[in-house]
Specification:
Elements lengths: L23 H7 L3 H4 L10 H4 L6 E5 L5 H9 L4 E5 L3 H13 L5 E4 L3 H8 L5 E7 L17 H10 E11 L2 H13 L3 E3 L17 H8 L5 E7 L2
Parallel strand pairs: 1-2, 1-4, 2-3, 4-5
Antiparallel strand pairs: 5-7, 6-7
Helix pairs in contact: 1-5
Protein backbone atom coordinates (compact mmCIF):
# COMPACT_ATOMS: atom_id res chain seq x y z
CA UNK A 1 0.00 0.00 0.00
CA UNK A 2 1.27 3.47 -0.87
CA UNK A 3 2.50 5.63 2.00
CA UNK A 4 2.56 8.84 0.01
CA UNK A 5 -0.52 10.22 1.74
CA UNK A 6 1.36 10.30 5.05
CA UNK A 7 3.83 12.96 3.96
CA UNK A 8 3.55 16.35 5.70
CA UNK A 9 2.42 19.35 3.69
CA UNK A 10 5.27 21.74 2.97
CA UNK A 11 4.94 25.24 4.40
CA UNK A 12 6.05 27.08 1.26
CA UNK A 13 3.55 29.87 0.64
CA UNK A 14 2.00 29.55 -2.81
CA UNK A 15 0.14 32.85 -2.85
CA UNK A 16 0.72 36.56 -2.39
CA UNK A 17 -1.59 38.63 -0.23
CA UNK A 18 -2.69 41.64 -2.25
CA UNK A 19 -4.26 44.72 -0.77
CA UNK A 20 -5.31 48.10 -2.03
CA UNK A 21 -8.08 50.64 -2.00
CA UNK A 22 -11.52 49.05 -1.81
CA UNK A 23 -14.70 50.29 -3.43
CA UNK A 24 -17.78 50.94 -1.30
CA UNK A 25 -19.35 47.71 -2.52
CA UNK A 26 -16.23 45.71 -1.69
CA UNK A 27 -16.09 47.24 1.80
CA UNK A 28 -19.75 46.39 2.31
CA UNK A 29 -19.09 42.79 1.34
CA UNK A 30 -16.16 42.50 3.74
CA UNK A 31 -17.95 44.12 6.69
CA UNK A 32 -21.75 44.36 6.68
CA UNK A 33 -22.35 41.20 4.65
CA UNK A 34 -19.53 39.07 6.06
CA UNK A 35 -21.73 37.49 8.78
CA UNK A 36 -24.06 36.21 6.02
CA UNK A 37 -21.50 34.88 3.54
CA UNK A 38 -18.19 34.71 5.39
CA UNK A 39 -16.97 31.72 7.39
CA UNK A 40 -15.04 32.56 10.54
CA UNK A 41 -12.48 29.86 11.23
CA UNK A 42 -12.14 28.44 14.72
CA UNK A 43 -10.13 25.50 16.03
CA UNK A 44 -12.52 22.72 15.11
CA UNK A 45 -13.40 21.12 11.80
CA UNK A 46 -16.18 22.84 9.85
CA UNK A 47 -19.54 21.11 9.65
CA UNK A 48 -20.32 21.83 6.01
CA UNK A 49 -23.98 20.86 6.37
CA UNK A 50 -24.46 23.59 8.99
CA UNK A 51 -23.11 26.28 6.66
CA UNK A 52 -25.92 26.11 4.12
CA UNK A 53 -29.71 26.07 4.05
CA UNK A 54 -29.76 22.83 2.04
CA UNK A 55 -27.58 19.73 2.32
CA UNK A 56 -26.14 19.37 -1.19
CA UNK A 57 -22.87 18.29 -2.81
CA UNK A 58 -20.10 20.75 -1.92
CA UNK A 59 -17.82 22.38 -4.50
CA UNK A 60 -14.66 23.92 -3.06
CA UNK A 61 -12.74 26.46 -5.13
CA UNK A 62 -9.34 27.83 -4.16
CA UNK A 63 -8.17 31.21 -5.42
CA UNK A 64 -11.30 32.61 -7.07
CA UNK A 65 -9.75 36.02 -7.80
CA UNK A 66 -12.49 38.58 -8.44
CA UNK A 67 -15.12 35.86 -8.12
CA UNK A 68 -16.86 36.24 -11.48
CA UNK A 69 -16.78 32.57 -12.48
CA UNK A 70 -17.59 31.26 -9.00
CA UNK A 71 -20.56 33.61 -8.79
CA UNK A 72 -21.88 32.46 -12.16
CA UNK A 73 -21.51 28.81 -11.22
CA UNK A 74 -23.33 29.32 -7.94
CA UNK A 75 -26.17 31.07 -9.79
CA UNK A 76 -26.39 28.42 -12.50
CA UNK A 77 -26.14 25.40 -10.18
CA UNK A 78 -28.50 25.95 -7.24
CA UNK A 79 -28.38 22.20 -6.54
CA UNK A 80 -24.79 22.50 -5.30
CA UNK A 81 -23.21 24.36 -2.41
CA UNK A 82 -20.07 26.39 -3.13
CA UNK A 83 -17.22 27.38 -0.83
CA UNK A 84 -14.58 29.77 -2.12
CA UNK A 85 -11.21 30.33 -0.46
CA UNK A 86 -9.28 33.49 -1.29
CA UNK A 87 -6.95 36.02 0.39
CA UNK A 88 -7.49 38.90 -2.08
CA UNK A 89 -9.76 41.24 -0.12
CA UNK A 90 -11.08 43.24 -3.07
CA UNK A 91 -12.16 40.03 -4.82
CA UNK A 92 -13.75 38.67 -1.65
CA UNK A 93 -15.68 41.86 -1.01
CA UNK A 94 -16.85 42.05 -4.60
CA UNK A 95 -18.02 38.44 -4.69
CA UNK A 96 -19.94 38.74 -1.42
CA UNK A 97 -21.61 41.94 -2.58
CA UNK A 98 -22.67 40.33 -5.87
CA UNK A 99 -23.86 37.18 -4.07
CA UNK A 100 -26.07 39.38 -1.90
CA UNK A 101 -27.50 41.16 -4.94
CA UNK A 102 -28.41 37.76 -6.39
CA UNK A 103 -29.77 36.52 -3.02
CA UNK A 104 -27.63 33.39 -3.15
CA UNK A 105 -27.90 30.90 -0.31
CA UNK A 106 -25.50 28.31 -1.73
CA UNK A 107 -22.24 30.29 -1.55
CA UNK A 108 -19.90 30.87 1.40
CA UNK A 109 -16.43 32.44 1.58
CA UNK A 110 -13.27 31.77 3.59
CA UNK A 111 -10.49 34.39 3.79
CA UNK A 112 -7.44 32.36 4.71
CA UNK A 113 -4.62 30.11 3.50
CA UNK A 114 -6.20 27.24 1.54
CA UNK A 115 -3.66 24.62 2.62
CA UNK A 116 -4.16 25.51 6.28
CA UNK A 117 -7.94 25.30 5.89
CA UNK A 118 -7.82 21.96 4.10
CA UNK A 119 -5.40 20.46 6.60
CA UNK A 120 -7.09 21.58 9.79
CA UNK A 121 -10.70 22.55 9.14
CA UNK A 122 -12.17 20.41 6.34
CA UNK A 123 -13.33 16.90 7.19
CA UNK A 124 -12.02 13.99 5.15
CA UNK A 125 -14.35 12.71 2.42
CA UNK A 126 -16.53 15.83 2.52
CA UNK A 127 -15.86 17.64 -0.78
CA UNK A 128 -17.61 16.52 -3.96
CA UNK A 129 -15.63 18.72 -6.36
CA UNK A 130 -12.39 20.68 -6.02
CA UNK A 131 -11.68 23.57 -8.40
CA UNK A 132 -8.45 25.46 -9.08
CA UNK A 133 -8.72 27.89 -11.98
CA UNK A 134 -5.77 29.96 -13.22
CA UNK A 135 -3.56 29.77 -10.11
CA UNK A 136 -0.42 31.88 -9.90
CA UNK A 137 1.97 30.15 -12.34
CA UNK A 138 5.13 31.34 -10.59
CA UNK A 139 6.64 31.26 -14.06
CA UNK A 140 10.29 31.77 -13.06
CA UNK A 141 12.02 28.41 -12.63
CA UNK A 142 13.38 29.33 -9.21
CA UNK A 143 9.79 29.92 -8.05
CA UNK A 144 8.27 26.68 -9.37
CA UNK A 145 8.46 25.25 -5.83
CA UNK A 146 5.78 27.78 -4.87
CA UNK A 147 3.23 26.34 -7.29
CA UNK A 148 0.34 24.93 -5.31
CA UNK A 149 -0.02 21.83 -7.49
CA UNK A 150 2.55 19.51 -5.97
CA UNK A 151 2.45 15.90 -4.80
CA UNK A 152 1.87 16.83 -1.16
CA UNK A 153 -1.09 19.03 -2.07
CA UNK A 154 -2.66 16.23 -4.11
CA UNK A 155 -2.20 13.87 -1.16
CA UNK A 156 -4.23 16.31 0.91
CA UNK A 157 -6.94 16.65 -1.73
CA UNK A 158 -7.24 12.88 -1.97
CA UNK A 159 -8.17 12.82 1.71
CA UNK A 160 -10.75 15.59 1.48
CA UNK A 161 -12.53 14.70 -1.78
CA UNK A 162 -15.09 11.90 -1.67
CA UNK A 163 -14.38 8.68 -3.51
CA UNK A 164 -15.45 9.23 -7.11
CA UNK A 165 -15.34 13.00 -6.61
CA UNK A 166 -13.80 15.39 -9.12
CA UNK A 167 -10.74 17.60 -9.26
CA UNK A 168 -10.87 20.27 -11.98
CA UNK A 169 -7.94 22.55 -12.76
CA UNK A 170 -7.35 25.09 -15.51
CA UNK A 171 -4.37 27.24 -16.47
CA UNK A 172 -3.24 29.42 -19.34
CA UNK A 173 0.45 28.61 -18.77
CA UNK A 174 1.44 25.62 -20.88
CA UNK A 175 4.40 24.65 -18.71
CA UNK A 176 2.23 24.67 -15.60
CA UNK A 177 -0.42 22.63 -17.45
CA UNK A 178 2.25 20.05 -18.24
CA UNK A 179 3.34 19.95 -14.60
CA UNK A 180 -0.28 19.60 -13.46
CA UNK A 181 -0.83 16.74 -15.88
CA UNK A 182 2.35 14.93 -14.85
CA UNK A 183 1.72 15.38 -11.12
CA UNK A 184 -1.90 14.23 -11.35
CA UNK A 185 -1.17 11.24 -13.57
CA UNK A 186 1.70 10.12 -11.34
CA UNK A 187 -0.52 10.19 -8.27
CA UNK A 188 -1.88 6.74 -7.35
CA UNK A 189 -5.38 7.99 -6.49
CA UNK A 190 -6.29 10.30 -9.37
CA UNK A 191 -7.45 9.16 -12.80
CA UNK A 192 -7.81 11.27 -15.93
CA UNK A 193 -11.41 11.37 -17.15
CA UNK A 194 -9.96 11.14 -20.66
CA UNK A 195 -7.07 9.07 -21.96
CA UNK A 196 -3.53 9.54 -20.65
CA UNK A 197 -1.98 12.96 -21.29
CA UNK A 198 -5.26 14.28 -22.78
CA UNK A 199 -6.53 17.67 -21.62
CA UNK A 200 -10.28 18.11 -21.25
CA UNK A 201 -12.39 20.49 -23.33
CA UNK A 202 -13.73 23.32 -21.17
CA UNK A 203 -17.00 22.01 -19.71
CA UNK A 204 -20.04 24.23 -20.15
CA UNK A 205 -20.38 24.74 -16.40
CA UNK A 206 -16.99 26.51 -16.20
CA UNK A 207 -17.64 30.10 -17.30
CA UNK A 208 -15.20 31.93 -19.54
CA UNK A 209 -13.87 34.90 -17.57
CA UNK A 210 -12.90 38.34 -18.90
CA UNK A 211 -9.29 37.41 -18.15
CA UNK A 212 -9.64 34.26 -20.24
CA UNK A 213 -11.28 36.08 -23.16
CA UNK A 214 -8.45 38.59 -23.16
CA UNK A 215 -5.98 35.71 -23.27
CA UNK A 216 -7.77 34.18 -26.25
CA UNK A 217 -7.54 37.50 -28.11
CA UNK A 218 -3.79 37.51 -27.44
CA UNK A 219 -3.46 33.97 -28.73
CA UNK A 220 -2.98 32.33 -25.34
CA UNK A 221 -4.04 28.73 -24.86
CA UNK A 222 -6.06 27.40 -21.94
CA UNK A 223 -5.73 23.87 -20.59
CA UNK A 224 -8.41 22.14 -18.48
CA UNK A 225 -7.64 18.99 -16.50
CA UNK A 226 -10.46 16.92 -14.99
CA UNK A 227 -9.57 13.94 -12.83
CA UNK A 228 -11.52 11.53 -10.62
CA UNK A 229 -10.49 10.77 -7.05
CA UNK A 230 -10.29 6.99 -6.80
CA UNK A 231 -10.57 5.52 -3.31
Amino acid sequence: MSTKTNKPIKTIQSFVRRSGRLTLGQKTGLTDLWPVYGIDIEKDKLNLDDLFEKQQPVVLEVGFGNGDSLLEMAINMPDRNFIGIEVYEAGIGRLINEAHKNQLTNLRIIKDDAVEILKNHIEDNSIDTFQLFFPDPWHKKKHHKRRIVQEDFLNLLHQKIIGGGTIHMATDWEHYAQQMMETLENHPHFKNTLDAHIYSPRPEHRPITKFERRGHRLGHGVWDLIFINES
